[in-house]
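Our preliminary data section would be incomplete without showing what the modeling component actually yields. Below, a chain of 141 amino acids is followed by its predicted structure, encoded as tokens that our downstream tools consume directly.
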Amino acid sequence: MCYWLYLALTVALIFVDNCSLTGAQIAGNGERMSKVTPELVALYDQYSAYVASRGAGAFRPADPMVRVIDDRVVVDAVASGDAEVLKSDVVSLGMRNAVAFGRVVSGELPISAIPALNALPSLQFARAAAASTRREPLPGR
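Predicted structure:
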């Protein structure tokens, strides 16, 4: 059930034209991050501040729905064309466990690579993969 819901949401996002950012969402180098959703921009900003402050302990994002593993974020990236080209591009940025399904490439991207992700011609848009919780059945059911 969750798989089909996830797939339906991903397909819906592909066809929605309002997945770009506002002009206020700018990368540190002054480039507008139009292919990356606001939660990834916010995550990059939080992580940059954490690194600059030399924070102790593991980095934790402010948004609990953004899945972070070590210094990587789980992302879903939608290809502007061939998903295998996008997969190769994101792997070159350091993505681990990259998997392509249709036009979507998912995997663990270094948070520091988010601005570079925005610059890929093979990318239509990218978002943080939604975290999910499993609901355990009630005892006796």
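The chain has one domain: 2-128. The chain has four helices and five strands. Preliminary results of this kind motivate Aim 1 of the renewal.
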